[in-house]
């Protein structure tokens, strides 16, 4: 029996639709009262068995920032277009006297992989490069950072550039130390060709709070990073991770170091781009990435932005037969999904495939459609199987709202968060671990009051999620089995 209920006289006045499983469960509302005034909410719980809405709050056709829940959409498009056997391939070819390294945008390519390719070449008796080395990045074009990526996070590794020339996740490690004289110092391993300068001050906790000071990172040309602000005095170094800003320059310097280590002589220039007229070329070495299935598991479990965005550009390249970009990649995602599933994402505003861009917009309804298709075709897609499990794996392992029974182990989902946004999309499981419901949680414009020491430590979003996920599990385990 289906019925509707209207909350009146409340900041959450709006239609709530239920399809009754039982009188007790159907009376439950999403715990929106836990959220701060002004938050926008759209939630949906659907029965997988009968395609009916169990609980729906807010406008499911309203556009929200999907954040990393968008990765489910990207993963589906990649599965449909590229297939499980797809692998990125990096090749070293010889053309006349030059070497050309044909990069493919492999997001998992490492220093060791490049070194191993050079070892393959040396094993053939080749001990020098007679001409130049070309770093061929022509498989991608356009911006390496999507429109809508905030400028103030471009130096950190979760916003590393999505580039054809990708190495070691386009991320380098360093550490910062506090000194007794009030200064700081930075350590960068010698093998990482970047320069980090610090003018940050060492302060006490009281000084930090009174001055409202924090560490600030700015970037400049030539992979130069500058740290300002202040850091509370500490006994151990603070680990730092920087996103490489100029990937071509970084890899050119890495290549020269690796050639020297391998004893391969090189006196030419490193050039960036596609070398003209490479038809009569000889393959010297190659490297293939792990399979698409393994990459998608890493992408979904750890919410890896670089994998998502390099796959997005690869989809643009593969679908349109032209260099991949954020523009043609996001359009390819829409076209691939519509052609294969009939799901119309034309209203969606997509700037990347990771969800990092603040310009992305997606409706609860569209994401619910994607989840249903994934469930209906799980035997072929195997996407639910590689998503994080509440309280047990991936980004959901330590999520406060999912660490305890009955939620722990009974939800499989993809989380997503950007500033002011907390999302979740996935499936509620029955006692046998089988999906019985799909659900989408979109919370935007979430700006709680600043916590004071005397206030409860549980954040409003955690209170909301804890109760909402309990409802998802209760609904999932109350559905009668056929």
Automatic annotation (TrEMBL):
Keywords: Carboxypeptidase, Hydrolase, Protease, Signal. GO terms for molecular function: serine-type D-Ala-D-Ala carboxypeptidase activity. It comes from the Bacteria. Belongs to the peptidase S13 family. GO terms for biological process: peptidoglycan metabolic process; proteolysis. NCBIfam families: PBP4 (TIGR00666), PRK11113.1 (NF008322). Residues 1-28 form the signal peptide. This is Serine-type D-Ala-D-Ala carboxypeptidase. SUPFAM superfamilies: beta-lactamase/transpeptidase-like. It comes from Vibrio astriarenae.
């Amino acid at each position: 029996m289906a019925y509707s209920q209207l909350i009146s006289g409340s900041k959450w006045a709006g239609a709530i639709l239920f399809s009754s499983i039982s009188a007790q469960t159907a009376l439950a509302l999403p715990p929106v009262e836990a959220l701060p005034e002004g938050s926008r909410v759209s939630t949906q719980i659907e029965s997988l068995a009968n395609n009916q809405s169990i609980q729906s709050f807010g406008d499911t056709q309203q556009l929200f920032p999907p954040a990393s829940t968008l990765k489910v959409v990207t993963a589906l498009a990649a599965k449909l277009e590229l297939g499980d056997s797809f692998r990125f391939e990096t090749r070293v070819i010889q053309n006349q006297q030059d070497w050309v390294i044909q990069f493919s945008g492999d997001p998992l390519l490492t220093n060791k992989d490049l070194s191993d390719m050079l070892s393959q070449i040396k094993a053939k008796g080749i001990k020098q490069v007679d001409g130049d080395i070309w770093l061929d990045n022509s498989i991608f074009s356009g911006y390496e950072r999507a429109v809508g990526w905030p400028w103030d996070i471009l130096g950190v590794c979760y916003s590393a550039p999505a580039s054809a020339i990708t190495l070691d996740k386009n991320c380098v490690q360093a550490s910062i130390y506090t000194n007794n004289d009030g200064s700081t110092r930075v350590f960068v391993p010698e093998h990482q060709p970047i320069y980090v300068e610090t003018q940050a001050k060492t302060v006490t906790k009281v000084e930090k709070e009174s001055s409202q000071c924090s560490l600030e990172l700015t970037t400049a040309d030539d992979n130069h990073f500058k740290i300002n602000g202040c850091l509370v005095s500490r006994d151990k170094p603070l680990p730092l991770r920087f996103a490489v800003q100029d990937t071509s320059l970084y890899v050119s310097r890495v290549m020269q170091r690796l050639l020297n280590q391998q004893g391969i002589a090189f006196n030419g220039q490193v050039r960036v781009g596609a070398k003209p007229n490479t038809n009569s070329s000889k393959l010297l070495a190659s490297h293939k990435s792990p399979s698409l299935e393994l990459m998608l598991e890493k992408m979904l479990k750890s919410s890896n932005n670089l994998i998502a965005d390099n796959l997005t550009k690869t989809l643009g390249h593969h679908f349109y037969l032209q260099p991949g970009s954020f523009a043609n990649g996001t359009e390819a995602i829409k076209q691939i999904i519509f052609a294969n599933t009939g799901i119309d994402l034309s209203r969606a505003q997509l700037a990347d495939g990771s969800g990092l861009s603040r310009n992305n917009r997606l409706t609860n309804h569209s994401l619910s459609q994607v989840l249903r298709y994934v469930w209906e075709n799980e035997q072929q897609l195997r996407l639910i199987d590689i998503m994080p499990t509440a309280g047990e794996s991936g980004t959901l392992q330590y999520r406060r709202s999912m660490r305890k029974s009955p939620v722990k182990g009974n939800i499989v989902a993809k989380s997503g968060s950007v500033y002011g946004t907390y999302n979740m999309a996935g499936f509620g499981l029955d006692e046998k671990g089988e999906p019985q419901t799909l659900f989408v949680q979109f919370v935007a414009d979430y700006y709680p009051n600043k916590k004071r020491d005397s206030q409860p430590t549980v954040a409003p979003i955690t209170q909301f999620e804890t109760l909402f996920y309990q409802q998802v599990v209760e609904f999932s385990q109350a559905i009668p089995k056929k």
